[in-house]
Amino acid sequence: MDIPAILADIRAHWHVYATMPLIAALIGYLTKRVAIEMMFRPLEFAGVRPVFGWQGVIPANARRMATTAVDLLTKNLVNPREIFARLDPEEMVKELEEPLLKAVDDVTREVMEQYQPRLWELLPTQAQRMLVDQVRAQAPKAVKRLMREVSTNIDEVLDVNDMLINAMVRDKSLTNRLIREVAAPEFKFIARSGIYFGFVIGLVQFVAWALTKQPLIMPLFGFVTGFVTDWLALKMIFYPREPRGFGFFRWQGMFQKRRRQVAADYGALIADEVLTVRNVMEAVLAGPKSDRLFAMITREVQRTIDTQTSIAKPLVALTVGGRQYQEMKRAAAAKAIAYLPETVKHVESYATGALDVRNTIVEKMQQLTPIEFEGILRPAFRQDEWKLIAVGAIIGGLVGELQVLLLLH
User: What secondary structure, in 3-state letters, does 56-124 show?
Assistant: First the structure.
C-alpha cells in the first residue's frame, strides 16, 4: 500500500473526495423522503397493471390498515356500550324538542289526511289541535323509551367496526392523515437521520475509494447507504420500547417517547374525523343493522298510536276499520322514520360533547402497554417496510453509479 501516493491523490482531487460524504448524506436524505412519500402517494394506482406502476403503501392497503386501527380502537380504547350510555335521554329530548314536535304535527296531519281525509276536513280546528296535542304529549315519552332501549342494545343497531372501517376505506386520504399527522415528527426524524447516517457511511466510502479506486465501490456504498439508513431509521422509531442507557447516552424509540403527545393527536383525529356523531348517525340510519332500529321505532310509534286511540275512541274506533287501522300505524311509523335523518341533526352538538370520544381515547391510550401502543403505528410499516428499504437501496445504488461516471469522466 503506497500511502504517499494515496495522500497525493487525495490532495490532487480533494474536491472529489470532499463530495463523497456530502453526496452520501444527500443520498441518505433523498432515499428517506422518497420512501416516506411512497407510503402515502399516489392515493390510487398509477401505471399499467399488473406489470408497472405504484400506489401508496397505505392507500393500497387501506382496508387492512383500517381493520387494524379499528381492532385497536374497539378492543382497547372505545367500548361502544360505555360510550353511548353517556347520552342522557332527558337531554336528548330537550335538544330534540322543537324538531320532534314539528315532526309529530306533520306526521299526524299527513296520516289523518291520507286515511281519513273527509273526517279530518270536517273536524273543527280545535278538535284537530286536541288530537295533535295528545300525540305531542306522548312523543317525548316514546323517544325516551327508545333512547334507553338503543343505549342498552347499541350492538343491535350499530356495527361500530363496519362503520369505522367503511369511513376510513371510503376516504383513503383520511387513513393517510391518521398515520401521517400522528407520526409527523417520526417522519421528519427518518428524513434527517438519512443525512447523518449517510455522512458517516460517506466517510467510509472516502477511505475505501482512496485505497482501491474500484468503480464498484460507489454504487455498492450507495446501495448500502440507502439500505442501512432506511432500516436503521425505521427501527429507531420503535425500539427500544423502554428507555435504555449506553454509557452517558440514553435512547428510547421516538414513538414510545412521545406517548402523551401521540395520544392527544390520535384522540383528536379519531374524534374529529372518524368516530364522529355524524358518522354514527349515518351508520345507525343506513348501516347493516339499521332495520333493527327501524323496528324499534315502528314499535314505539304504533304503541303511541294505540295509546291515543284509547283516548280518542269516538274519533278513531268508529271510523277506522281494523285492517285500515294497522295500515295507518305502519304509515305513521314509516313517515316518522323518514323524518329521522333531519330531526337527529339537532342533537349533534350535544351528543359530541356527551360522548367525549377524544378524552376517552387519550385516557385509554395512556393505559396501553408499550407493545399495544406500538400497534397504533407499526402496522403501517411492518408488512411493506421491506419495499421502502429496497427502494432506498436501489436509489442509493443508482446515485452511486452516477458518482462513478462523474469521477471517471
Answer: CHHHHCHHHHHHHHHHHHHHHHCCHHHHHCCCCHHHHHHHHHHHHHHHHHHHHHHHHHHHCHHHHHHCC
**DSSP H helical segments within 215-258, as ranges?**
217-238, 254-257
Q: Each residue of 150-176: pLDDT tens digit? A: 888 888 888 888 888 888 888 888 888
Sign of the four-CA dihedral 298, 304, 308, 309: positive
Q: Give me the helix-helix angle, 89-115 and 348-355, nearest 10°.
A: 150
Angle at CA 291, nearest 5°, toward 285 and 293? 65
Dihedral angle, C-alpha 402, 403, 408, 409, nearest 10 °: 60
The verdict on whether omega for the bond into residue 50 sits within 30 degrees of 0, i.e. cis, is: yes
How far apart are the C-alpha atoms of 305 and 327, rounded to whole Å?
12
* ∠ CA 278-93-300, rounded to 5°: 90
The answer to whether the CB of 81 falls within 8 A of the CB of 155 is yes
The length of the chain in residues reads: 409
Contacts of 217 by beta carbon, 8 Å cutoff, 6+ apart = 205, 208, 209
List, for residues 356-394, the tens digit of each pLDDT value: 888 988 888 888 888 888 877 776 666 667 776 787 788
CA atoms within 13 A on the CB side of 187: 19
The predicted model scores a pTM of 0.70
85: number of CA atoms within 13 Å, CB side?
8
226, 24 Cβ separation under 8 angstroms: no
Q: Which residue is it, cell 329530548?
A: 93
Nearest residue to 348 via CA among 278, 272, 280: 278
